[in-house]
Amino acid sequence: MNMSKEDGYAIAAVVVLIALLAALIYAWYTNLLETIVALIVVIVLVLGFGLAIIYLISGTIFFFTKKDKSHEYSSMTLGDVTEVDREMEKK
Asked: Are 43 and 24 in contact (CB under 8 A)?
C-alpha cells in the first residue's frame, strides 16, 4: 500500500497529539505548570486534534476518490496488446 502525503500528515499529527497528551498528563500529576501554561497546552492540544481530524478526513476522501487506471488495461485482449506492441515498434 502506497502512502500519500496526506497519510503522512495524519500520522505525524497523531504522533504530535500523543506527545502533547503525555506532556499534559505529566504536568497534571507533577504540578509543574501554572494555569496559563496549562491553558496554552490545552489550546494546542485542541488545535492538534482539529488538524488531525482534518488531515484524516482529507486523506480518506483522497484515498477513496483517486483515479485508478489499472482497470483500463485489464480489459485488453491479447490481440489488443499485440497491436499496441506493433505500434510501439513502428515508432
From this structure: no
Q: How many CB atoms lie within 10 A of CB 55?
A: 20
How many domains does the chain contain in total? 1
Helix (H, G, I), strand (E, B) or coil at 89: helix
Which domain covers residue 52, as residue numbers? 5-90
Q: What does the alpha-carbon distance between residue 33 and residue 23 come to, in Å, rounded to a whole number?
A: 10
How far is Cα 91 from Cα 88, in angstroms, rounded to an integer? 5
DSSP per-residue letters across 13-64: HHHHHHHHHHHHHHHHHHT---HHHHHHHHHHHHHHHHHHHHHHHHHHHHHH
- Residue listed under C-alpha cell 506532556: 23
User: pLDDT tens across 18-50, in order?
Assistant: 887 887 777 777 776 666 677 777 888 888 888
Say yes or no to pLDDT of 11 above 70. Answer: yes
Mean pLDDT of 41-67: 78
